[in-house]
Every structure is written in C-alpha cells, then in structure tokens.
Write a structure and sequence with these properties.
Layout (H helix, E strand, L loop, with lengths): L2 H18 L18 E2 L4 H6 L6 E2 L4 E5 L5 H14 L4 E5 L6 H6 L7 E4 L4 H14 L4 E5 L11 H15 L5 E7 L17 H4 L2 E13 L2 E14 L7 E9 L1 E6 L1
Parallel strand pairs: 3-7, 3-8, 4-5, 4-6, 6-7
Antiparallel strand pairs: 1-2, 8-9, 9-10, 10-11
Helix pairs in contact: 5-6
C-alpha cells in the first residue's frame, strides 16, 4: 500500500472511531486459540497422544476400530467404556455379534450396572435402536459389535445404509461417541468385502484405528498379557499414519499399560 493510500485509510479509521467509538473499528491482531474437541480418553496415554487434535475418541462423531479376532479391538472398546463411565457417562453396548462376555467386561472395569446391553434381532433393528439412543442424548458412549454381522442381514442393504447416513446429523446434537467394531474377516482393512454395498462406514467415520496383535507378554512360563500395535488409519481432526504399541495385561483385572 502506498503512503498516500495509507494516510487516507488512517484518516478514515480515525473519523469512524471518533463518531462511533474505538470498538467500532480497530486493526486486526493475530489471535492464538486452542480448540478442544470433546472426547473420551482411551485409557492408553500414548494412544491418546497419537490421536493428535483430539486426545482420545471424539464425541459427536463416528469412530471405527478394525482388527482380526483377538487383536485387542474389543478390549480397547471396553476400556473406553470404563473410562467414560468413570467420568459419569452412561454406556451402551449393541451386541449384534452375540459375543459380549460380562465377566470379561467386568475385568476390564466396566460397571455392568450402568451398561445398557442391547441384543437386537437384526442389523436394521440394531441401527434403529442406535438412532433412538443417540437422539435421546443420554448415552455418552456406544459400542456397536460388529459391523460385519450386517452382511447377513435379511432386511436388505438400502435401509441399513440409509440408517448409517442419518447418524452424523443426529450426532451433531448429541454428546455420544459411537464406536463401530469391524472384525477383518475378509483381508485388508480397506477391502469393500468388509462392508455392505453402500454402507460407507469408512467414509462417515472421523477416526479409524487398526489394531494388530504383535506378541504375547510372558513372565517365565506364564502369559501375562499381549502387546498390540494401533495404527491411526484416519483422523479428520489431526494427522494420520501414527502408530503406537499398547500392552494389555491380565492379573485379575484387565489393565492397559504402556510398553
């Protein structure tokens, strides 16, 4: 800006301020703000750090956990439920896969008395119940086990895909953190065989985590737990590609420890 134009601008600014006050017009200044995303800690501090920009599992957004059976996927989901309950949240577990083990959940420190266990008859019914729970805004965390069970749902693919597409709008007004578990029974995490046609869970999810069990943890001849790697496949609120190792140990209570 030339000196003549700068003087004209300063004169205009001064005239406006004299007439309407200093607050009516002032020069902009760089402002540093910290945006905190509402979230639930995972119970694993290193994983929370890897979820940069969030610090855990985001509320009001979809999260997908992927992994082979015994990868630690279900255990991570239960530990997140326990963390949410410790913070005062009501939790729900939609057991479409009929695999929920209350004894193991209790060992993961889940408060069964404050857990809503849903046993739907079909995938369509499961998603309708999820929509109802989210819209009531009373559930802080909801685990859906498992997305692959929808493949065999007789209700058809269109109603299921439509139900999933409605969730983001419902979540915008809810504090709920829905977590979908996707067992990798059909190869790679990106394989379309893991999903119904049109059931675009990877698209709608804000966070996608891939779990892989790496090795058993032993103390002498005794197995005391296992080590898993968690890879951030997708994070709309931060960087992707980060991976961390977590240890899940057994000693009466299932605990999550850093390795």
């Amino acid at each position: 800006m030339g000196s003549r134009n700068r003087k004209r601008l300063e004169s205009t600014v001064a005239a406006i301020q004299r007439r309407w006050g200093q607050k009516a017009l002032r020069r902009g200044r760089p402002v540093t703000t910290t945006v905190t995303t509402p979230h639930i800690p995972t119970g694993f501090s290193e994983l929370d750090q890897a979820l940069a920009g969030i610090g855990g599992i985001p509320r009001s957004r979809l999260t997908e956990l992927l992994g082979a059976p015994t990868s630690g996927m279900a255990t991570l989901a239960l530990k997140i439920i326990a963390t949410a309950q410790a913070g005062g949240d009501v939790a729900a577990y939609v057991d479409l896969a009929a695999t929920f083990d209350p004894d193991y959940a209790a060992r993961c420190e889940v408060d069964l008395a404050r857990l809503l266990l849903v046993r739907p008859q079909s995938g369509r019914e499961a998603l309708e119940i999820i929509q109802a729970l989210i819209s009531r805004r009373e559930v802080g965390v909801l685990v859906f086990d498992a997305a692959t069970q929808l493949l065999a749902d007789p209700a058809g693919t269109r109603p299921l895909a439509a139900a999933l597409s409605h969730l983001p709008a419902l979540l915008a007004k809810s504090p709920c953190a829905p977590i979908f578990l996707t067992p990798l029974q059909f190869g790679e995490a990106a394989s379309t065989a893991n999903y119904l046609p049109g059931f675009a869970l990877p698209h709608y999810a804000t966070v996608r985590l891939l779990l892989t069990k790496e090795r058993w943890l032993q103390k002498g001849p005794d197995v005391r737990g296992y080590q898993a790697r968690v890879l951030v496949l997708k994070n709309k609120l931060g960087p992707v590609g980060k991976s961390v190792r977590i240890a899940i140990t057994f000693n009466g209570v299932v605990r999550g420890d850093s390795t």
